[in-house]
Amino acid sequence: MNESSSPSPPPSDAIVAGPPTPPVAHAPGSPDTRVRLWPAVLIVVVQWVAVFIGFRYFQGTMVQLMLMFLGPTLGTLLFVAWWYFASRVSRGQRWNVLGGAVVAAIAMYFLSDATFGGFGLVLYALPAAMTAWTLWLLISYALPWRIRYVGLCMVVVLAFELFTLVRLNGVYGNFMPIFSWRWRVKEEDRFLADRQADKIGVLPVAESPPLRWQPGDWPGFRGPDRDGKLTGVRIATDWDVHPPKLLWKHRVGNAWSSFAVIGKRLFTQEQNDKFESVICYDADTGKILWEHQDEGRFINDETVAGIGPRATPTFYKSKIYALGAKGLLNCLDAGSGIKQWTRDIKIDSEAKEPRWGYASSPLIAQGNVIVFAGGPAGKALVAYNAETGKLAWTAGAGDQLSYCSPQLAKIDGVEQVVLTSNAGLLAIDPKDGTVLWTFESSSGDQVRVVQPAQVQDSDFLLGSGFGAGTKRVHVHHADTGWEAKEVWNKRTISPYYNDMVVHKGHAYGFDNGFFSCINLKDGKKKWTTRGDEAGDGYGSGQVLLLADQDLLLIVCEKGEVALVEANPADYKELSRFDAIKEPNSKAWNHPVVAHGRLFVRSDHWAACFQLTELNK
After folding, report:
1. Bridge partners, residue 470, by sequence
2. 46-60, 179-193, 266-280: range with lowest mean pLDDT
């Protein structure tokens, strides 16, 4: 071949044409696969923001409940839709992770503590699992997909199974959960161990004449008039200089009961293992004087309300009257605890046991012991002869539900028993059960727990929780009979189970999780605290009015006690101290001040403090 016929090399800058180079294809699941993650991040962030908004701005309302329950439910549906349809993960791996999550959730449901159940699964486990799922994919972004995929399977399973290690000890009033490790000894078991070891102690019951109500005593639920008001007492308000002196403190059995105080005897109710107990303590030492037990243990299918009795014992003419959560009404000798008579209000009223147990503190009027029973037509309330226990009368329309206690009032010179229920207000003649008047104001499926607060001689405040607000109702005796009419209806205060006190034209109480003051003339709010974020939160506690000093004694939900001025012009806290602040405990019980002493209790603890009294 000669030189002229041989091919010449192309110029260095020439472009050589050829078939296009195909792009490198990465199969789903290869190390270069990247998940489309932004929808998951958005879902998780929105879900937690919704929870925060509910706690911060809609505490104790239906909005908060919807955000708490519907948020995780809707979030889970959206999250599953993202994972299956838009995550870019291979179909097999999508199914594997999703199937593993379902199996882990089912296993958690059956392996978790009995307190957890479906309530804990929806509210806590599902949001936690979705958050862990998303966070893992975020922080592992630079890792090969195979490692991310295996790690994701492990993270999702662990996120669910972590909840098998904890116990749900109920929730606070704002629905914040109270968790503890499952292997920790329960507070109830600690109480039983203390009782068994005689750490609480028992004193012999000395023979004494029949007990009598004396000045300074506290005969039952919320005081002599059941209005949470104390007069004739003045205390030192600077607790830095004159701190309340602890006299005794010990564990008690589960209950939401408060105290009755007669002389140096302290009466309450407790759950003692499988027994409901009416118990008498020595007020000086906290030692047991006597205990009456009835076999029975109230517990429902959720952990919000807890176990044990709800009502406070009532003292009347040397006797103690106490209603247990299961419906047993006892009359006991106050000095010895010897049973005088017992009635089962479920049998006498043909009622079904309420979901959260009987909570009616007995009221004695016209020689009758009156409690709410919730039976069918004509048997909402039952009354018994205080001496004999014989059924005196039943009264009130059927289909009523109430966790309130009957309250004695006098309107136009007529003594009557007033009760708050889901139907509104009901007034009855304590002699024979004749219905005097009703005020219809249905709360639907929402129960009412707060007491009717009497304003002057003829008006009542009807409060409802979950943001439903409060109504002022005027009652008078017309020519045609009794009439009850609405004066105003405001959402400025929505008490749930936290009773209000009335003082000098204003009402003070808990508006969901915030303590508030409203004007009784028009229902407008004067001021409110802003919760724990501001350092002045009291949770869902209870309040007692020290009327002579224009003071509010507030028991915070977590066991602190605070003094606040009953001043509509401005909110001002004077003092605060830790009284019964203990882990896994909440103080929903009403405080008592009697004979210069402060008695407080929670579901697990009780304590007595000597207050510094000022010269009268």
Report:
1. 463, 490
2. 46-60
3 three-state secondary structure: coil
73 & 132 share domain: yes
Beta bridge partners of 496: none
486 part of a folded domain? yes
Domain-embedded: residue 11: no
Residues 149 and 202 placed together within one structural domain of the fold: no
Task: Check which CATH number belongs to the domain holding 463 and give it.
Answer: 2.130.10.10
Helix/strand/coil for 360: coil
- Number of domains, the chain: 2
The model's pLDDT over 226-235, given as tens digits with 9 standing for 90+, comes to 999 999 999 9
Nearest alpha-carbon partner for 227 in 519, 605, 543: 543
Nearest CA among 587, 518, 575, 520 for reference residue 551: 575
Q: Tokens 């059927």: give the residue.
A: 398
Q: Are residues 231 and 301 in the same domain?
A: yes
Residue of 394, 383, 505 whose CA lies nearest to 456: 505
What Rg, from alpha-carbon coordinates, does the chain have?
A: 31
In the structure encoding, which two tokens stand for residue 151, read together?
A: 């790690």
b/e map of 421-437 (b: 16 or more CB within 10 Å)? bbbbbbbbbbeebebbb
Last residue of a domain, one of 181, 204, 229: 181
* 173 and 251 together in one domain: no
Examine the domain organization and report whether 177 and 245 are in the same domain: no
| Stretch among 170-179, 247-256, 372-381 having the lowest mean pLDDT | 170-179
**pLDDT of the residue at 304:** 74
In Å, how far are 266, 347, 359, 362, 372 from 327, measured between CA atoms? 22, 9, 9, 12, 10
Do 306 and 445 fall within a single domain?
A: yes
Give the three-state DSSP class for 180.
strand
> Is 56's pLDDT higher than 90?
no
Rounded CA separation 296/308 (Å): 9
CB 252 within 8 A of CB 267: no
Whole-model pTM over 0.85: yes
d(CA 191, CA 391) in angstroms, rounded, equals: 37
Torsion 11-17-18-19 (CA) sign: positive
Does the pLDDT of residue 551 top 80, yes or no? yes
Full residue range of the structural domain in which residue 487 is found: 187-610
Q: Is residue 53 part of a domain?
A: yes
User: Which phi and psi (to 5°) does residue 240 adopt?
Assistant: -75, -35
The domain boundary residue, chosen from 181, 211, 244: 181
Residue type at 288? I
> Does a structural domain hold residue 3?
no
Q: Where are the alpha helices (DSSP H) in 162-200?
A: 187-196
Same domain, 231 and 145: no
Contact 126, 72 (CB under 8 A): yes
233 and 122 together in one domain: no
Contact between 552 and 542 (Cβ < 8 Å) = no
Q: How far apart are CA 608 and CA 283, in angstroms?
A: 8
Backbone dihedral angles phi then psi of residue 235, each to the nearest 5 degrees: -125, 160
Residue 510 is inside which H or E element, if any?
strand 506-511
Q: How far apart are CA 358 and CA 449, in angstroms?
A: 11
Which amino acid appears at position 532 of this protein? D
Residue 72 region by backbone torsions, left for phi larger than 0, else alpha for psi between -120 and 50, else beta = alpha
Look-up: residue for tokens 């908060």?
64
